[in-house]
């Protein structure tokens, strides 16, 4: 594996974790939203990752990164709270809230943030090693 591939691998992971953080932020922002006029509440979204090969021939399995394969919506039922006085209550008096679990989203945020930080540290270490190698050659 070339030293320059380290930057490709870490760069792809940073990009993927950045997208994950954006999805988590969207989920947290909509955690307490109620069903809209269509009767459907916000559904939590999750990011799916997939291996991305950098080598066109696939002969170097070490030259693989990560990419976002897609973003899916949770099909779990949203919270329903009995509040017949609410203007958005259904015929039975229940208000449907989003199915976002703020605790799970905070864990996702911490995990994505740590992964992001670790990949930045990998890139900084690789840069430092490359600079020291260049200095040795002078």
Automatic annotation (TrEMBL):
The record's family statement is: Belongs to the flagella basal body rod proteins family.
Q: Which domain of life is it from?
A: Bacteria
- PROSITE patterns, alphabetized: FLAGELLA_BB_ROD
Which organism is this protein's natural source? Piscinibacter sakaiensis
Q: Which PANTHER family match?
A: FLAGELLAR BASAL-BODY ROD PROTEIN FLGC, FLAGELLAR PROTEIN
Q: What is the lineage of its organism?
A: Bacteria, Pseudomonadati, Pseudomonadota, Betaproteobacteria, Burkholderiales
Q: How does it assemble?
A: The basal body constitutes a major portion of the flagellar organelle and consists of four rings (L,P,S, and M) mounted on a central rod. The rod consists of about 26 subunits of FlgG in the distal portion, and FlgB, FlgC and FlgF are thought to build up the proximal portion of the rod with about 6 subunits each.
Q: Which residues form the Flagellar basal body rod protein N-terminal domain?
A: 7-34
Tell me which Pfam families the record gives: Flg_bb_rod (PF00460), Flg_bbr_C (PF06429)
One of the GO biological process terms: bacterial-type flagellum-dependent swarming motility
UniProt subcellular location:
Bacterial flagellum basal body
Which keywords annotate this record? Answer: Bacterial flagellum, Cell projection, Cilium, Flagellum
> Could you tell me what this protein is called?
Flagellar basal-body rod protein FlgC
Tell me which GO cellular component terms the UniProt record holds: bacterial-type flagellum basal body, rod
Task: Provide the Flagellar basal-body/hook protein C-terminal domain boundaries.
Answer: 92-136
Q: Which InterPro entries does the UniProt record give?
A: Flag_bb_rod_N, Flagellar_basal_body_rod_CS, Flg_bb/hook_C_dom, FlgC
